[in-house]
Amino acid sequence: MSHMVVFRSAEGKPGYHQADSLDEAVRFVEHLRNQEGVSDTRLFKMQEIPLEVRTYYRVEVASGAETPAVVEEAERTVGMLDDPVVVEPLPAGNGQNAARFNRFNRG
Questions:
Q1: pLDDT of residue 95
Q2: Are 17 and 4 contacting, i.e. CB atoms less than 8 angstroms apart?
């Protein structure tokens, strides 16, 4: 397991050192203390966290596009709607009704 030594140098600059083992990290901390005069050190155990990336699509209306949400009432304009319309995504079907939407399906 990988380890990370985080320290602040004698000049006050932050420093980082990645070590492949705990023994290597401890030896680096000893080096910092004994040869560099650095006493502000911290040691962290690094462990990979598995990630899963999923595709997500978001559709937005361009800001310059005109929308048909203008309503006129008795010589006054109400204006465009400010609230966005939220449409929940439809689940993908298992193919049972797929034929009804296929205009090229000839039976």
A1: 52
A2: yes
